[in-house]
Amino acid sequence: MSDVITVFKGDGIGPEITDSVLAILNAAGAGLTYEIFSVGAAEYEAHGALIPDEAFASFEKNKVLLKSPITTPLGTGFRSLNVMMRKKYDLYANIRPAKSNAAIKTPFGGVDIVIFRENTEDLYAGIEEMVDENTARSIKVITRKCSERIIRDAFDYAVNQGRKKVTCVHKANIMKLSDGLFRNIFYEIAKEYPQITAEDKIVDNVAMQLVMHPQQFDVIVTENLYGDILSDLASGLIGGLGLLPSSNLGSDYAMFEAVHGSAPDIAGKGIANPTAFLWSACMMLEHLGKNETAAKIRRAVDEVLADGSVMTPDLGGSATTKEYEAAIIARL
Ligand code: NAI
């Protein structure tokens, strides 16, 4: 039976990498049927809705969304659709695996970190106001409910994947109440997992440690803002944003997307690296129980990267997105 999934094409490089990823999924025999929608800033300009009602309805029916990046205006304009989707569908667990690939040369070998980022609250709750003309205020919200579930997911993942350590990242020395609550809950839950080492570190120290000794980290669990920033940092350790996938999971819905944005600087040039989005699609296949297809695609990507002759410019090559896609399909 074919699984039906919803696909959002997004802005910037979104449509280019979506076309490539769907072509590779089809070539791998993923057995998926797609309901595809244009969403985002470009869709708004063309038809007056950022996300058409039918697109929401499709996701609500299929429960699984493969979403490419959407442009968000800075400072003014509509609120981030990404943040809205995560809140609307309570996609509370943003899981971002950053793993070194032997074929991609960086100064940091042996990185294998999975970041569990709380996805629905913290400073991203969107509670902002102008107190007066010269004073703006954003409220940070940390709750027991949202902290408990992401922390428990991180420990469960560590157990299921044979990982050894979970590091809680916070700034409880300054935000004693909010980050203090997150840290306290972390140690409460850690007691349920005696086989996993539990430690906590302050976020600024972690930024430095990630660059100096990234191999010490295993699973990281953290709040929304820190997780957002540290996962981009982690992508730099393994070769850039073109290589960092993610899943956004809730109890009812699942959304899979690359960590990177719409990359307007290279949009339309046909040179975007679709790997992060493709690996996000592999996480989706695993979520759907199609582990063999995911493994087949991961193997083909590894072979193409190891061969090194067909790489996109962000990885030091000169291949187009289409040439890279064709090389992966040839290896399937
Ligand atoms: P970005 O991630 O789009 O780009 C940062 C840099 O990385 C750029 O130089 C870009 O060319 C490069 N890059 C990113 N993905 C790449 C890929 N697949 N292949 C090759 N190079 C790649 O971040 P930026 O420029 O800060 O944001 C652009 C827009 O994307 C903004 O409107 C932002 O709000 C939005 N955004 C959307 C996200 C989402 O939809 N989940 C996530 C992050 C940003």
Give an overview in words.
The chain is of the alpha/beta class and 332 residues long. It has eleven helices and twelve strands. Helices cover 41% and strands 20% of the residues. Strands 2-1-3-12-11-4-5-10-8-9 form a ten-stranded mixed β-sheet, sandwiched between helices. Strands 6-7 form a two-stranded antiparallel ribbon. Helix 1 (14-27) links the parallel strand 1 and strand 2 (32-37). Helix 1 runs parallel beside helix 11, helix 9 (275-287) packs antiparallel against helix 10 and helix 10 (291-307) packs across helix 11 (321-331). Bound molecules: 1,4-dihydronicotinamide adenine dinucleotide. 1,4-dihydronicotinamide adenine dinucleotide binds at residues 13, 69-72, 82, 241-242, 257, 260-266, 272-273, 276, 314. The site of 1,4-dihydronicotinamide adenine dinucleotide (NAI) has 20 residues, from loops.
In short:
With 332 residues, the chain is α/β, with parallel strands linked by helices.
